[in-house]
Structures are given as structure tokens and as C-alpha cells.
Amino acid sequence: MPLRQYCAFIVLVFLGMLLSGVIFISSNQMSCKQAVIDRIFPLLQYNQPSVLSGRTDVVPISSWLAPIIWDGTFDPKLIDSIYIPHNIKIVTTVFALGKYTRFLQDFLESAEEHYFSGYRVHYYLFTDQPEAVPSVKMNENHTLTVRKVPSLDRWQDISMGRMEILENLIANELIHEADYMFCLDVDTKFYGRWGAESLGHLVGVIHPWFFDYPRDSFSYERRPESQAFIPAGEGDYYYTAAAFGGVLEEVYRLTKTCHEQLRVDRENNIEAVWHEESHLNKYFLYNKPTKLLSPEYLWRDINASAGQIKVFVISDGEPQVQDVAFSSCPVEEIHLLTPLLSLLRIMRLRQSVHFSHLAMFVGLLLSGLMFLSYTSYWFRQIGVDTLTSWLAPIVWEGTFDSTLMDAIYKQQNITVVTTVFALGKYTRFLQDFLESAEEHYFSGYRVHYYLFTDQPEAVPSVKMNENHTLTVRKVPSLDRWQDISMGRMEILENLIANELIHEADYMFCLDVDTKFYGRWGAESLGHLVGVIHPWFFDYPRDSFSYERRPESQAFIPAGEGDYYYTAAAFGGVLEEVYRLTKTCHEQLRVDRENNIEAVWHEESHLNKYFLYNKPTKLLSPEYLWRDINASAGQIKVVRFSHVAKNNAEVRPNL
């Protein structure tokens, strides 16, 4: 082969290999993202979250906006920094009767290596053989209590009797002792981190045998005679009874309900097909878990594999030597080098290939692989991320089922207070705001608008929907729009403390120079809700217009920050919005005393608050777009948008 052709051949092969490397890394980048970032930027506390990248081989969120926890969907350091300061306590229950005591050694030793390290954990072990419990050294703040229970002849009775024991344990002893509770099977072993990322109000674990099956294949109880009956065509996921949990109150409701249903079935001489697991699945169908753990958190066999499973946390099977390491980063490197080694073997058989050419090829390929390994973080999937690195849902079109969301929330008969400020010339926006809100905003729910204005006579007459009311409050006129903006926090703080704390469930604070164009409903509800600013959602955090002067209470240092949030829309439960407004009001007061005004006034203080008090739900820029006439590839629906205006004409001091 002539030298020129041979060189061309080498270049083409290299480009092909490089392209294959890009494809492989782009499909597997999330499993190694943190490791890559740590190598490049070892001083960062945690890397900036993004709304434009995430795992694409799995769904990280349910249709009712519950996070589904997979490897690569959260930042463990960030999660721990949020939960450890709260000094929480996790009760963990295990049953080991009869020959199941043989699993205790592995369970306890592996748990002490991987399970809630650095947290307070209290194991409650129920067994008919206390003398068979092995002596295992507990970590600091980890304790073990052994309780003797009667022996039972059938494993089904052991399984089904667990719900009654757990119900009584919570009611009689634990209700004021702990914050969270997990109930785990003993014939298991931990192989990786199980930490605070698993905590939630009500937590279910997706069954490893059914996670990729259609629901018609789920082994639900199909006999109508049983209390666990689920009709064909219904169901979300199939959950395992080998691991479930949540806050104490929710686990108590679960165990109490399942115990009662098991009792009724026993009286009717029927036993659900999978005993307590069948009843657990019935409960979760009508009481949706607020967090789902992927099959990584209870895998079927350590020796089994599936493309979506990057890490085994806990499993039933015994490991082989090659299964000890559960990071996917070394696996990625092996996959990348395998084609290279195969090619080398082929080329070494070709006597006509000159060694120098081979060395040049190897050098080029290795340099390409090194480049890819350090830059794979920036090869982003086209689309959006639906979970933050602290596992808060990010709500986009297509991430939720609106019918299901309404079915969950409407039965709770909630009230949503919504505040709006319209001072000076901003009253001109009221007509569009109110009319469009009555078309799109929380239709079918109880809504109470509080409108603050210096011109009550300018408020237009807009027909309210059923269960929607409008209260107009007069406030003084102000000369500067900045003072209008900054004074809002004090007014909201006082409104909540003096009037609303027992009137409503949720609250949203919205700007008036806006208009609704699509549904804004129960999918937006959360404990503390922030809206990602439409101008910065696709920018690096060094570009965010945070307050950078240390003299201000709103100061955020360079290199810190998650997202940039808009102050034109935020909300949550009443208690959380009260804490937010009270804190921001206090920080604004201190700044005023120090003769400093944050660069974006209350919005700067809001961003400082959200940095250290992470929102539990984020609304995408669909929920406050910059202009109905602007476009972006990620924005499929504009629900709420600023309206075009001349700031110099409507703002009093411009």
C-alpha cells in the first residue's frame, strides 16, 4: 500500500474510533461525570447543576413528579450537606426468623460499611433466636436493638405479620424518636452507598424483576375478593416489599392500612398472591410514593446485569470477585480500550505494517481517548434534565400527567393563595393578568388572589371562576420601582403571619406584568418552589447576575450557585414562604442600614436564600418565559410569560 494511502487509512480509522468514542461516552457520561469534574476541578464543592443534561437511558421522574433515584441523578456530597446538619435519625427494621438468621452477618456488616454513613441509625432486629445474632461492630451513632418474636411455621405468616409489628412499634415507641424509617429484608447485602438521597415522605422501591415490563405483566393480586385487588389496566410500577420507607407518620399509615387489609383477607379465607407485597402495591397505587428508588436499591442478583443498572446498592446474590467494584468509570475505560487492543492484535499480524506507523496510530488514538475522557462532560444530550443534583423535580412539558396530578390534589380540597402587586402604571396589566389566570391558573381548585395596589379604583371587573376569589388591598404609592420590589417581602411576611397561616395550604407570589398562555396547575405545588429565570437557564453560573459585593447580605461568591431564579414567581407551602419572606425582609433591612442595595434588589436576596435553602421543586422557564414571541429549542409550551412593555414609561423613576 502506498504511503499516502496508508496515512489516509490511518487517519480515517482514527476518526472512526474517535467518533465511536464520542458516541459511547455521550451515552454513558452521567455515570462518570462527578469523577471527571473532581479530577479537573478538585477545589469545587460541587459542580453546577444543569437543566440541559441528564441520563437519557432511564426516566428519572414519575408521571406524578416523584424523583426516581438512579446513579448519576444526584450529587452525594450536596445531598449530605443538606441532611447531615439536621441531625436526623433513621430507624431501620429487619426480621430474621428461623434459618434466616444465617443472613444477619452479611447484612449487618455490609450495612455498617454502606448504609447511612455519618447519620444516626437505630436498627430494630426482630428474631425468634436472639442468641443467633452475631456480634457486629456498630459505627458511631449506629445502634442495634434485638426484639424476640414467636417462631412461625410458614414464611408467608412471617411476611404478613410484619405489618402489624411495625404498626405497633411506630405507635407505641417510635413516633417521637426518629425522623425516617426503612423496612428491609434480611436476606440481602449492601454493595454501595445507600444514603440521604433515598429519604422522602413516602418511599417505594421498584421491583428488580418488573422494572422494564408492561404493567399487564405485573404480578398484582387480580382476584376481586382480596383487599389487595388491582384491576387489569391499572397500576404504575410494581414495588418490592423487601424495602420501603418514609417519614414515621407515612410508614405508620402504610403499615396500619396493610395490616387492616390483611386482617380482612384472613377473615375471608383468602391470601393475596404475594402476601404483604400485594397489599403494599395496592397501597402505593392509591397513595403515590413521593420518591422512588430504582432497582439499584434492591437488585435481583449481584451476578445479573441490565444496561440501565450502573451501581448495585443492595442485592440478594453472592458477589464474584469482579463484582466488588461498583463504579462505572473503570468499566467505561475498559470499553474504550477494548477496540484499541483488538486493532493492535490485528495489525501486529500484518507484516507489511511498519512499526513507526503503528506507533503513530497508537499515539494519535491515545491522545484522542485522553481528550474525550476529559471533555466528555461537555458532550450534552439534546433535551432537558428533570431532576436537580439534590433530587428536586424540574417541571417541563411532558414530565407529568396532568390528569393524574389533578386526581391526587383535587381530593385534598387545597387552597392556593396568590399575591400580585400593581402600583402606579402597572395597573394597566391587571386585565390581561386576571383574565388569563382565570382561563389557565389552577382551574378547579380554590384560589384566593390578594391584589396590592395604590389605585383600587383601577382594578378591572373580571369574572372569577367558581371557588376563585379576589381581595384588593390598598398600599401607599412609592416613587422608585426598586422600593416597590423590595417592599414586597415585608408585606408578604406580615400577610402570612397575621392572616393566612390557617387559611391556605400553598402560596404563589407573581408579577403582574405577565400573562398566562397555558396550564399552571397542581404540578407546580411543592414545599418550596423556585422558577428558573428564562434569561439564564442555559448559561454557566459565572454569568449569573448574582450580587457579588461582600458588603451586601445577598452576596454569593464566584464559583457558587445552582440556578438563577426569578423573583417574578416563587411559592410553596405557607410555612416555607413565610420563612423565605421573613429572611429576605431581614436581609433587605440590614442592607438598607448599611446603605447598599443589591444589584437586583429582592431577586438577589431570593437567589441567596435558595442557594442555602434548596427548593424542593423547580419550575422550568415554561412557567415564566421572557417573551411570548421569543423561542428556544427546549421550550415546548409557554405557560406564563412577561408581556412586552417600555420600562422607562411604566416605571416611576426611569
Cα shape: elongated
Gyration radius from CA atoms, angstroms: 29 Å
Classify the helix fraction into a percent range: 25-40%
The CATH superfamily of the largest domain is identified as: Spore Coat Polysaccharide Biosynthesis Protein SpsA, Chain A
CATH class of the largest domain: Alpha Beta
| DSSP E strands, number | 20
CATH topology of the largest domain: Spore Coat Polysaccharide Biosynthesis Protein SpsA, Chain A
Would you tell me the structural class of the helices and strands? alpha/beta
Distance between the termini: 75 Å
What is this entry, summarized?
With 654 residues, this protein is of the alpha/beta class. It contains 15 helices and 20 strands.
Q: What's the layout of helices and strands?
A:
Elements (H helix, E strand, L loop, with lengths): L2 H26 L4 H8 L27 E2 L6 H8 L5 E8 L7 H11 L5 E8 L14 E7 L6 H20 L5 E6 L3 E2 L11 E5 L32 E9 H20 L8 H11 L4 E3 L20 E2 L13 H21 L5 H21 L18 E2 L6 H8 L5 E8 L7 H11 L5 E8 L14 E7 L6 H20 L5 E6 L2 E3 L11 E5 L32 E9 H20 L8 H11 L4 E3 L20 E3 L4 H4 L4
Parallel strand pairs: 1-9, 2-3, 2-5, 3-4, 7-9, 11-19, 12-13, 12-15, 13-14, 17-19
Antiparallel strand pairs: 5-8, 6-10, 7-8, 15-18, 16-20, 17-18
Helix pairs in contact: 1-8, 1-9, 5-6, 6-7, 8-9, 12-13, 13-14
